[in-house]
Amino acid sequence: MTVITRKSDLKAQWELCVKSYVPGQISLFVEKLHEVILSQKVKFPLLEYCAHKMFDFLPDTEHILVCDKIESLKTEGGNVLIGKILQLRLVVDFDLSIEKAAEYISKADIWYVCDIIGERVFGYALLNYPHKMFPKFDQLSIHPSNWVVRSLGAGGHYAIKKGLGKAHCQQLFRILLTMANSSDKEIRQGVGWAAKTTAKFHPDIISSYKLDINNQKEVANWFRRKVEIGLNRNSYAKGN
Fold it and tell me: Pfam families this protein is in (predicted)?
């Protein structure tokens, strides 16, 4: 396995993919992509650069098809490509990008699929298109796949960390509270992550929902523990 750490090295591999492309035969392109990039160890920022190149190089009509084929390969790096391509397609077809992200995540067989795609699609959409994303976020919070629900936590964490407005953070926290009594390990992991980040960056939001958080019938102990960790990190950062 080759380790690719420089953009110049990735460009050489990318050119091999370009040469393999035949219009209407996307499988040949994906086979070469898998051989020279996805089967190697590549840093995530370089994979995102590759996704940009793919987005620009391939016809719009083949973006989703190439994502379908990459998903079927089940590689870790493939999720970075998928996440970034769908992120770039949010301005092309917002609804389909969210729908396909949920579809790919629901097919996950390991946790990092949720987090990689969830941050890049759900998190980015929440940060940049909150009014369009919040209704989707609400719908996905009751998705039958626990992987999809977990990914919302990863997305929420990303958006808060990157500067989601306070009013929208409060709106997000209200949705997190609706999932705060889950006993599912994956949901607890994702939702807890977002709750912890909310507490770290916006302790005043936690204060305003103190009664809800302390409702032991509606909110499980794991959620309160995550909130407490976040509050402690906020206090530590302030030197208290």
Answer: DNA_alkylation (PF08713)
* Rounded Cα–Cα distance for residues 136 and 98 (Å): 8
Residue written as token pair 């009013």: 167
- Beta carbons within 10 angstroms of residue 77's beta carbon: 24
* Residue whose C-alpha is closest to residue 182's, from 134, 221, 136: 221
Sign of the Cα torsion 54, 159, 125, 114 reads positive
pLDDT in tens, 84-128: 999 999 999 999 999 999 999 999 999 999 999 999 999 999 999
* Phi and psi torsions of 41, nearest 5°: -95, 110
Contact 30, 75 (CB under 8 A): no
The number of helices, as runs of H, and strands, as runs of E, in the chain is 15, 2
Helices 185-201, 221-237: crossing angle, 10 deg rounding:
30
